[in-house]
């Protein structure tokens, strides 16, 4: 959520006069340096060419026409080249090419901009009411600003998800994810937690709680007290909201912490980001963990936060291993270096559509992926 006093300014020329407004970007992107005016008469080919060259288009036409233009630009971005590109040498190269293509696509489509009046009002024909969706993410808007249409559509989608919630079969309830907080749409790891025998029903720590779904699942399974941590303000608020909806606030305490809360517990659970790569936006922080910092931090501090005979449950996919971004030997080395031992492991295959999509550029890695619950304990020689 941005304080308007800290927002940068975007500048452009319109009707022969210099104009400016505040610039909003949840991804933290700087305002485009060159901006031209576009409207209902702007051809899609022209818009796509300008956007590809880094020129932003500030829309002055009909809102729904802008939406159609963005779709037309997306089709041009996704169009396969006439000459087939050289296939990647391995999955690591395929991953980096895929990430680069995603980044270029996002940058190009992010060049279609919309004007906003104070109060998050879009002053265009047939524009939807977006005040509440924008306020949830940006906070109040007391002055006009400019933002990407693609980002606005993401905000609207997140607003709908937050309202409707996501059905969690392992929980038998809905979880309501907030914008920028990872949505538990992949339920395999939750199934693992739902089935694993609890070492104790006294106390559990949920490290990096996000939406609070794991804390809720542990509480529902009968853990009498759960301490759920996160350091992201949005995640903390989201978790408290979900736990309140589920009537679990007396069982689960949500605290701000960088990984661990104070003290020890007989069960410490963590579902860190699975891929050691740099996120390109705040939304990606739950998926990409540069240099496996959170994973390594959890492992390094786990033994000091386990009660005697306590267990640490690490929920981790081996997707990064199939991409060549991390090896199993590295993971086992970090576990050993942290003074931990492996008690056992439960595995499950992914069920998401990409795992069975042969056209996905990372299909080979997705097809081989396994998600695991690693049961860890402190070594005796600590």
From TrEMBL:
The keyword rRNA-binding does not apply. The keyword S-adenosyl-L-methionine applies. It holds the Pfam family MTS. One of its GO terms (biological process) is methylation. Coiled coil: none annotated. Residues 201-278 form the Methyltransferase small domain. GO terms for molecular function: nucleic acid binding; protein-glutamine N-methyltransferase activity. It comes from the Bacteria. Keywords: Methyltransferase, S-adenosyl-L-methionine, Transferase. This is Class I SAM-dependent methyltransferase. It comes from Cupriavidus campinensis.
């Amino acid at each position: 959520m941005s304080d308007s006093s800290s927002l940068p300014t975007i500048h452009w020329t319109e009707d022969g006069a210099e104009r400016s407004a505040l610039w909003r970007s949840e991804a933290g992107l700087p305002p485009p340096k060159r901006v031209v005016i576009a409207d209902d008469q702007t051809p899609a080919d022209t818009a796509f060419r300008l956007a590809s060259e880094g020129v932003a288009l500030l829309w002055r036409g009909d809102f729904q026409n802008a939406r159609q233009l963005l779709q037309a630009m997306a089709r041009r971005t996704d169009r396969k080249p006439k000459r087939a590109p050289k296939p990647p040498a391995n999955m690591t190269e395929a991953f980096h090419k895929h990430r680069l293509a995603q980044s270029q696509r996002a940058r190009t489509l992010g060049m279609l901009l919309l004007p906003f009046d104070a109060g998050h009002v879009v002053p265009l024909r047939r524009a939807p009411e977006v005040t509440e969706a924008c306020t949830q993410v940006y906070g109040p808007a007391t002055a006009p600003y400019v933002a990407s249409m693609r980002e606005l559509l993401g905000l609207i989608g997140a607003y709908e998800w937050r309202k409707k919630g996501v059905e969690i079969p392992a929980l038998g309830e809905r979880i309501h994810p907030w914008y920028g907080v990872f949505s538990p749409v992949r339920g395999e790891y939750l199934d693992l937690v739902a089935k694993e025998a609890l070492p104790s029903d006294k106390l559990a720590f949920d490290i990096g709680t996000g939406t609070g779904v794991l804390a809720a699942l542990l509480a529902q399974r009968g853990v009498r007290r759960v301490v759920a941590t996160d350091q992201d303000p949005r995640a903390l608020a989201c978790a408290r909201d979900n736990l309140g909806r589920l009537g679990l606030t007396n069982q689960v305490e949500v605290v701000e912490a960088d990984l661990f809360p104070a003290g020890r517990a007989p069960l410490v659970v963590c579902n860190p980001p699975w891929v050691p790569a740099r996120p390109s936006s705040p939304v990606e922080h739950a998926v990409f963990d540069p240099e496996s910092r959170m994973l390594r931090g959890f492992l390094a501090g786990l033994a000091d936060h386990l009660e005697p005979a306590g267990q640490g449950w690490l929920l981790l996919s081996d997707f990064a291993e199939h991409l060549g971004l991390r090896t199993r030997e590295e993971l086992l080395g970090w576990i050993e270096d942290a003074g931990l031992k492996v008690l056992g492991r439960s595995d499950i295959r992914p069920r998401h559509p990409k795992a069975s999509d042969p056209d996905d550029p990372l299909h080979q890695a997705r097809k081989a992926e396994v998600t695991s619950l690693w049961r860890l304990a402190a070594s005796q020689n600590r």
